[in-house]
Write a structure and sequence with these properties.
binds acetoacetyl-coenzyme A, oxidoreductase, alpha/beta, 3-OHacyl-CoA_DH, EC 1.1.1.157, 8-stranded mixed sheet
């Protein structure tokens, strides 16, 4: 199962990061989104990241041009007819994802692997929207993609061993570390991370300490690079809430109940860094 050409669907924060690391590893990549504007914004972020590498003399201007030449903008899923792997990084919505996967199933070549970067939605259910569930897999990258080493690889119920191995090899080629995980709500990363973040929000809600104090305890006491409330703002409070709801519904256990304060912030449109305000205010 040789992988040369890739399509990344979604040119947002995650999709553009994934496209960047794939192009840097030598793969030819279509960066796809619904509108040309979105794709251009994603390419702009990649350009900025690579320019920083050139400034730091970790890459030459010539190498940067080569990486950029491997990225092709795309606004139609029809481009998937020429690829060996699709990595979907669209919005976290099951209806949208199953529609994308069923469309891709009709367009992508028979041998192509269809991967999702979903942070918590069941891979098995996404795979059921296709006639090739054995070729559907989860590739969960962490934010910021160019920096974070982990790719959590999620096996759906039907994922074939050869498909897992091809994605494991490809992840190594990206100079990332693959970790194998089975398909359960939140996988491993978000099953552990999100309840910690939710507990930090409860700690604030119950007036145990200020937001700054909560973050400082976890940064200095546990050596976390960011405190949990800063991290929640960085991830997006809507995403955190959505993942907590997925855990709550998936396991049916009260311990995953989202904190009312998290719900309130999301209802207020305080979504974190991306909206300019979450637990903190961003200029
Ligand atoms: N894109 C590309 N590179 C970035 C970047 C971005 N968005 N943000 C930071 N960097 C790079 C910087 O250029 C810098 O590179 P060099 O060291 O090579 O010069 C390096 O990262 C460190 O950056 P800074 O010095 O500016 O800041 P920092 O030391 O505080 O690190 C951080 C920033 C890497 C984001 C760090 O704070 C961190 O690791 N935070 C935790 C991140 C985390 O937990 N991510 C997982 C979130 S959960 C998730 O993604 C999954 C999910 O499903 C929700």
């Amino acid at each position: 199962m040789e992988i040369n050409k890739i399509m990344v669907i979604g040119a947002g924060q995650m999709g553009s990061g994934i496209a960047q690391v794939c192009a840097q590893a030598g793969y030819n990549v279509y960066l796809n989104d619904l509108k040309q504007d979105f794709v251009e914004r994603g390419l702009g972020v990649i350009n900025k990241n690579l320019s920083r590498q050139v400034d730091k003399e970790r890459m030459t201007a010539g190498e940067m041009d080569e990486v950029l030449s491997r990225l092709t903008p795309s606004t139609t899923l029809q481009d998937a007819k020429a690829v060996d792997l699709v990595i979907e990084a669209a919005v976290e919505n099951m209806e949208i994802k199953t529609k994308i996967f069923s469309d891709l199933d009709a367009i992508a070549p028979e041998h192509a692997i269809l991967a999702s970067n979903t942070s918590s939605l069941p891979i098995t259910e996404i795979a059921a929207a296709t006639k090739r569930p054995e070729q559907v897999i989860g590739m969960h990258f962490m934010n910021p993609v160019p920096v974070m080493k982990l790719v959590e690889i999620i096996r759906g119920l039907a994922t074939a061993d050869e498909v897992y191995e091809a994605i494991e090899t490809m992840t190594n080629n990206l100079k990332k570390v693959p970790v194998e995980v089975n398909d359960f709500p939140g996988f491993v990363s978000n099953r552990i991370l999100m309840p910690m973040i939710n507990e930090a929000v409860y700690t604030l809600y119950e007036g145990v300490a200020t937001k700054e104090a909560i973050d400082e305890v976890m940064k200095l006491g546990m050596n976390h690079p960011m405190g949990p409330l800063t991290l929640a703002d960085f991830i997006g409070l809507d995403t955190c809430l959505y993942i907590m709801e997925t855990l709550h519904e998936g396991f049916g256990d009260d311990k995953y109940r989202p904190c009312p304060l998290l719900r309130k912030y999301v209802k207020a449109g305080w979504l974190g860094k991306k909206s300019g305000r979450g637990f903190y205010v961003y200029e």
